[in-house]
Amino acid sequence: MLIFLIIALSPIRISNPIGFRVMTYNALNFSYNDGDRAGYFQTVFDSVNADVILMQEMINEAGCDTLLNRLNSDGQEYARADFINGDDTDNILFYRIPKCSLMSQKNLQTDLRDISEYVLLIGYDTMRFYSCHLKSSQGSSNEQRRLEEATILRNYLNDSIPVDAEFIIAGDMNFYYDEQAYYKLTGDEVNNNGRAEDPLNQPGNWHDNPIYASIHTQSTRAIQFGGGASGGLDDRFDFIFTNHGINDDMRVEYILWSYISYGNDGNHLNESINDGTNDSVSTYMANALFYASDHLPVYADFVSSGSMGVNEEDYTMEPSISVNLINSERIEIKYTLNSSSKVLIDVYNLLGQQVKSFYKHEEKGKHTVIWEECGKELSSGIYLLKFRAGKYEVNRKFILIK
């Protein structure tokens, strides 16, 4: 038998958007004992001031702790995900608390390096992050390997995440041009649940091309040292992709023109990032970027659950929750809309983990969503149901006793 105690909360009008900055950074085989590199990374971290940091080419857990300590050395409050040691170099996530909380993480296996999934709760919104380090080097066989890796990710996003979920794919993609793997992530397919979008919208032949000099991210060095690449800035390897159509005036929005290859002033094609004068950063910062890694970090800004100019009167909802045990154990969620809208219904446990999600596009009128056999999917405990249409939200808490 199921017993539900419904605790009604007043409708919430979210009026204060939560801005957050996402950065991806290839750490060039970073370990805990890498000399002065941790200090150079700290210089970059302090300047960019990102809230979510995805890093690739981490060697060990000790290296992750070293960088976490650097992030927190000035009284900041960062935490990190678990370090999962795979077959090659690995990913790590750092995130600012309490703005962000980690709900879950897992790895998607590929033949070379795993792709890491991190699910964060930022404000009222769930955001999925995928850190990638695809196969390197030119040539058809390497391009095919990258396509296979991108296909694993696209298929997972298409089939395994909630419909209309919002996500960010970031990392060292090793794309020399808009090759097949790029379009596997961003292309229009029969199933577009996992379709990504390049915020810069600049497909092309990026390698050693002055047209794209301002968005190159590798190499920061014209000379080779410390295991890094040489040749100067001539490749766009590091990307931040978003889910396609992210700017739909719901939940998370990308802030236009905020996508930055940090330290690239567009005037260092085939040169080291600290050669001569750098018009985008100080000499001190250019040196830190030069010595920290052979990649530049890339960052972009986003906003979560802001008002976005939506009026209180845009949506009128009269949600109620009832339990019908006549034929099966189920929850019925009833609501009324004054105008057509996307409707999102998410259920969270007390750990902030999303345990159920519904997405619908409804017309004006009365509607019902039925959650069949919910008692088999949930254990006893307290849960929070968030109901959203536009930027208007209603919360309900319920206690499940089995």
Q: What does it look like?
A:
The structure is a single chain. The protein is α+β, with helices and mostly antiparallel strands. It folds into 2 domains: 3-13 and 313-401, Immunoglobulin-like (Sandwich); 18-304, Deoxyribonuclease I, Chain A, CATH 3.60.10.10. It is 16% helix and 36% strand. The chain has 6 helices and 22 strands. The strands form 4 sheets. Strands 3, 4, 5, 6, 13, 14 and 15 form a 7-stranded mixed beta sheet that branches. Strands 1, 2, 18, 19, 21 and 22 form a 6-stranded antiparallel beta sheet that branches. Strand 16 (320-323) and strand 17 (330-337) form a beta hairpin. Helix 1 (37-48) crosses helix 5 and helix 3 (140-160) runs parallel beside helix 4. It is globular, with a radius of gyration of 23 Å. The N and C termini lie close together (6 Å). 41% of the residues are buried. Residues 6-15, 306-321 and 323-328 have low confidence and may be disordered.
What's the short story on this structure?
By secondary structure, the chain is α+β, with helices and mostly antiparallel strands. 16% of the residues lie in helices and 36% in strands. Helix 3 (140-160) packs parallel to helix 4.
